[in-house]
Design a protein that fits this description.
The protein is α/β, with parallel strands linked by helices. It contains eleven helices and 26 strands. The strands form six sheets. The chain has an eight-stranded parallel barrel, surrounded by six helices.
């Protein structure tokens, strides 16, 4: 007899209403993300403003409500004034984070226009690396003030009459990292972020602010960084950022798929630290989480190092162009499940990034076709079907150990309930490599619900990739789930991403 698992789903087992911004993404002036990615003037595939129409179609398919911009490491030497005004007069700059040449052909006004084309909004980051309070305030005035002041009138003179009304602002990027231009100690960053936040809230009290958290779980200052900096920023900010990337450098697929457990531990520790600061400050509000960088990233590291060290100062060099495998898509699915399990505190998340740079969408160099990576599909499924109320499933599943993890559950799952549509979606990953699992789900409180469809993403070769010429790893509908007497039986094939949709009939 094969492996079995059991699960209970009840619409009263609520985690939280899911904030749609959990399906955000990220575009940085890095590699071919902007130039030769979303922007290619003169390409027959581009519109009259130079934006790739096929790329925009794919972004709309992902239904991304929020896009973080312009970095990332890039922002810590970003002079926003260089990116506005007549394009022909904008200066070229040495971009120090990635040792590239920034032409400023696309700036914040063009990017804001592009986000509207893809039905999204800008999440703006300010430079607290090489700049500071005054420049952050000037940028906010330029973006959000209606007019009658120096920087709002400058925006109007640049042909943008209506304010951009940017709602969410990041107070710098990864300021705990020694690699960051203008790296700060926790004391230095806490004070600078506090004073910047205080000033920005005077200009526009309606904005939401994100305080920089630790750049990864294994940072030596984690979680003291969160504790110390939030003691300074608590009264003014709404979120603390989290960043995390994973890779399979040891070529150990079983252990690779266990890394979402590390993400869960990371989130729990940050929540605990936020609540400690709340108690210490005698506060009334929760600091929630903006997990504004997350993905798989490791395939391109050697090539990236070669470009930055040996071939610097190129415009839009091919950097961070990870080509994703089937197993990468599984981990992305597992990370999405982890984010949804913490929907009560994770309110914003940004898949890093969106086009060409560690991205679900790729374009062939020089203006060729756009195509979908393996990771495109679990993100699309979650964004499409994962809006509503996150439900906590009670799962009893076998466990296994890996090289670096113990008690790893064979099945990871979360459910999303959409009451108005009378629809329930179960996201589940079988993260074993060699055994199918029969999952039995008690659908208590979901009388009359039947299976609408069961979608899977799977491939016998975990190293299989997609390309512009061939889409080998794509979702398919299967007949592996059925409901009888309020109990659903589902076959979860080994190493598979499963989306099981149910509705009342």
């Amino acid at each position: 007899m094969g492996k079995t698992a059991k699960m209970i789903i009840d619409k009263d087992f609520r985690i939280s209403q899911i904030d749609d911004r959990i399906y955000g993404s990220f575009v940085e002036h890095l590699g071919r993300a902007v130039y030769d990615g979303l922007y290619q003037p003169g390409n027959p595939l581009s519109d009259e403003e130079g934006f790739r129409k096929d790329v925009m179609d794919m972004v709309r398919e992902l239904n991304v409500p929020l896009i973080r911009y312009p970095g990332g490491n890039f922002v810590s030497n970003f002079f926003w004034e260089d990116s506005v005004g007549p394009a022909a007069k904008r200066p070229k700059r040495l971009e120090l984070a990635w040792r590239s040449l920034e032409t400023n052909e696309v700036g914040l006004n063009e990017f804001s226009k592009w986000t509207k084309k893809v039905d999204s909004q800008v999440m703006m980051a300010v430079n607290l690396g090489t700049r500071g309070i005054a420049d952050a305030c000037n940028l906010l005035e330029y973006c959000n003030h209606p007019g009658g002041t120096k920087y709002s009138d400058m925006r109007i003179a640049h042909g943008v009459k209506e304010p951009h009304q940017v709602k969410v602002w990041c107070l710098g990027n990864e300021m705990d990292g020694p690699w960051q231009l203008g790296h700060k100690t926790m004391e230095e960053y806490g004070r600078l972020a506090e004073e910047t936040a205080k000033a920005m809230k005077l200009i526009d009290p309606a904005i939401e602010l994100v305080s920089c958290g630790s750049s990864a779980l294994d940072m030596p200052t984690f979680p003291r960084w969160e504790s110390k900096t939030l003691e300074c920023t608590y009264d003014y900010v709404d979120y603390v950022s989290m960043h995390q990337y994973y890779g399979n450098r040891d070529n150990d697929s079983l252990d690779f798929l266990a890394q979402s457990d590390d993400m869960d531990e990371f989130i729990r520790t940050v929540i605990a630290t936020c609540d400690y600061v709340k108690a210490k400050k005698r506060g009334r509000k929760n600091i929630n989480i903006s997990f504004d960088e997350w993905n798989v990233w490791y395939h391109s590291n050697a090539a990236d190092d070669d470009i930055t060290k040996n071939h610097p100062w190129q415009t839009a060099p091919p950097m961070l162009e990870d080509i994703y495998t089937m197993e990468d898509a599984l981990l992305v699915g597992l990370m999405l499940i982890t984010l949804l399990k913490h929907a009560d505190r994770v309110k914003i998340a940004c898949l890093a990034q969106l086009v060409n740079v560690i991205a679900p969408i790729m374009t062939e160099a020089g203006g060729g076709a756009a195509w979908k990576q393996t990771i495109f599909y679990p993100f699309m499924h979650a964004s499409r079907f994962g809006r509503g109320v996150a439900l906590k499933p009670l799962v009893a599943a076998p466990k296994h150990d890996t090289a670096k993890h113990e008690d790893v559950t064979d099945v990871e799952s979360v459910a999303v309930y959409r009451e108005e549509e009378e629809e329930l979606t179960v996201f589940a990953v079988n993260r074993t490599l060699d055994e199918d699992i029969l999952l039995t789900t008690d659908l208590r409180g979901m009388e009359g619900y039947q299976v609408i469809e069961h979608i899977v993403l799977e491939d016998s070769d975990l190293k299989m990739v997609n390309s512009a010429g061939e889409q080998r790893v794509i979702p398919k509908a299967v007949n592996r789930s059925s409901v009888d007497g309020g109990v659903m039986t589902s076959m979860l094939n080994r190493a598979s991403w499963n989306v099981i949709r149910l509705g009342r009939r």
